[in-house]
Amino acid sequence: MIAFYGHNQNRDEVKIMKETLLHDKQVALGAKMVDFAGWHMPVQFTSIIEEHKNVRQNVGLFDVSHMGEVFVSGKDTLAFLNKLVPQEIGKLYDSKAVYCQLPNKKGGLIDDLIVYKLEDNKYLLIVNASRIDEDVNWFVRNSLEFKDLYIDNQSHNYSLLAIQGPKAINVMEKLGYTGHQDFFTIKKMTLADVEVYVSRTGYTGEDGYEVMMKNADAQMLWDKILEVGKEFSILPIGLGARDTLRLESALHLYGNDLTEDTTPIEAGLSWSIPKDKPEDYNGKEVIMAQIANGVDKKLIGIKMATRAVPRHECEVYFNGEKVGHVTSGGFAPSLNETIALCYVKNIKEICTGASVQVMIREKLQDAVVVKRPFVQKHNSEKK
Known about the structure:
This protein is of the alpha+beta class. Helix content is 19%, strand content 36%.
């Protein structure tokens, strides 16, 4: 990755931002670029709503090369990973992936990540762009007791493209993809004469694929995907639509919905936590106690009764009492409504169908608690 040097408009100084290898191609396509976690990234190419709807209806191409890729190998890898995350990594078979959290010693979340088992004693960890340094530092701090362990941060050597939407499979087949791939798996294969890793996960609520390749192949593959995807109405997609898509699907955003002061149980992720994992891990005592005894706060989804847009940190009220705040909020193009995720006090009456209010621009706006996700996934893969 390379550095971008530009002037900060608010201060008389130079601001340094990183670029993906596709930065110039995106600028050439007319992308509006913004600073995201220290990266100069496209927020939109046409409009957020158009890009959002195209992913829901057709297919979109995302550059997510700012994400981190860390390989962990050695005979002690399994024991090491089981110390890091609440999930039972030993249950993964070759090519299988699992969504994990990275708790600190108090159960708060340093990050959330996906762990892929490539083969025995070799795993790939995909981590959030804003947390690469923190995560790798935490990995190293927790590695000292393990002798046969190699932590290899390859984030600077790989690029990552996401192909998402009901027609993603059609684009993949045009690239040479064949066969069936289960959800949350990874395969090493050749696409468009390039050796890549293909995973089937996604951050949009739609079926889709992530293609990880060496940096040298990124620009060619970006062009090739857009070329073969024309007949399926593919569009390049920016961070704006990526955010509205994940919000409709009630997927967490680190820094908003997940922080070092939030446990996975408070975040509504207890479904992902094994109750009987024998190995100890960071924060286990706190997390298990919360499963057994409950929590003081919980994450809920709301729909606004008005067109007012709830934003991060807006206060939430119930029966006239301040009970929490918005973590992620915005307009949902698929619903033509405004929605939000919020942390509130764990009051029994704040449940699906309950009325709450959100303070927006010094005025209380009505909302209702609804089930998550806000929009259901379209399962469109060919059988």
